[in-house]
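C-alpha cells as discussed.
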C-alpha cells in the first residue's frame, strides 16, 4: 500500500476566482492519468489528478470544505500525498484528439508531454463557460494544435466544446480520443466516438474515501473508479448505465448529475 508523504506547498497560482494550483515537491514517478489522494490535516482526504512529473502540482476548484481549505493554504503549509493510484491513459493511434473542460485538463497534461516524447500528433479542444474560466491554455498551446470553445463566445468558438470536437472529428482523420471533464460532456464525446468507431478513453471522477478498492464509495455499475479506473475505455462506458446520468453521494445515495 502506498504511504502518505507529507510535503510543503512551494507555490500557489490563482488560475480563476474559484480555481488554484498548488505546487509541491513530491518526487514520485507516475503514469499519465493516474491520481493521488490528498490529505488535508484535520479535514479530509480527497482524490486529485497529479499534473506533471518533476513539477508536481494539483489544480483545485473550490466546491466544498476540503477544497476550500486547500484554497486557503499558503507557502510552507503542509499536505499529505498518497499514490500514485489507479490506471492510466494509453496513448494509441494518432492524431490523438483531447477534449477537456473545467479542471479536467489537469489529468491530461502529462499525457500531452508523453505524446510529444513519443512523436505523436495531438489536437486539443478546450472548453469553458467563459474565457476567464479557461484553464491550461499555455500547456496545451505549446504542445498541441489547440482549439477553444466557450459557452458565451468570449474566446474561440461560441458554443459547447463537444460541438467543436464533433467538427474536428468530421474534418480530421482522428486515430483516438482522450477526454476528461464534466461527465455530461464526456458522455457526449464517448457517444460520438462510439458511433464513428474511434477508440476513446475517459477519466471519471467519483466520491472516494480509500482509493484502493476497499470502501466501495466510488462504485459505478459494479466497477470501482479507484482501481478499475479512473480511465475507462468507450466500450466499457457505453455499458455503464450510471455514466453521465448518476453519481453516488457521500452517504451512498445515487443522485442525478
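Sequence:
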Amino acid at each position: 500500500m502506498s504511504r502518505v508523504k507529507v510535503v510543503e506547498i512551494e507555490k500557489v497560482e490563482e488560475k480563476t476566482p474559484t480555481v488554484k494550483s498548488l505546487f509541491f515537491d513530491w518526487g514520485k514517478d507516475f503514469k499519465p492519468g493516474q491520481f493521488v489522494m490528498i490529505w488535508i490535516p484535520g479535514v479530509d482526504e480527497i482524490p486529485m489528478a497529479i499534473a506533471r512529473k518533476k513539477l508536481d502540482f494539483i489544480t483545485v476548484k473550490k466546491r466544498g470544505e476540503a477544497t476550500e481549505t486547500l484554497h486557503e493554504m499558503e507557502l510552507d503549509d503542509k499536505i499529505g500525498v498518497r499514490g500514485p493510484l489507479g490506471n492510466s491513459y494509453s496513448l494509441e493511434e494518432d492524431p490523438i484528439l483531447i477534449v477537456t473542460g473545467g479542471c479536467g485538463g489537469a489529468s491530461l497534461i502529462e499525457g500531452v508531454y508523453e505524446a510529444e516524447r513519443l512523436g505523436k500528433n495531438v489536437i486539443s479542444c478546450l472548453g469553458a463557460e467563459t474565457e476567464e474560466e479557461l484553464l491550461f491554455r499555455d500547456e496545451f498551446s505549446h504542445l498541441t494544435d489547440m482549439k477553444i470553445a466557450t459557452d458565451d463566445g468570449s474566446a474561440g468558438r461560441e458554443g459547447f466544446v463537444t460541438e467543436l470536437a464533433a467538427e474536428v472529428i468530421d474534418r480530421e482523420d482522428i486515430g483516438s480520443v482522450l477526454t476528461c471533464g464534466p461527465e455530461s460532456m464526456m458522455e457526449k464525446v464517448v457517444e460520438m466516438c462510439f458511433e464513428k468507431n474511434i477508440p476513446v478513453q475517459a477519466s471519471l471522477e467519483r466520491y472516494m474515501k480509500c482509493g484502493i478498492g476497499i470502501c466501495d464509495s466510488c462504485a459505478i455499475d459494479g466497477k470501482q473508479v479507484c482501481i478499475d479506473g479512473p480511465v475507462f475505455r468507450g466500450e466499457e462506458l457505453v455499458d455503464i448505465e450510471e455514466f453521465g446520468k448518476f453519481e453516488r453521494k457521500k452517504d451512498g445515495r445515487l443522485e442525478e448529475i
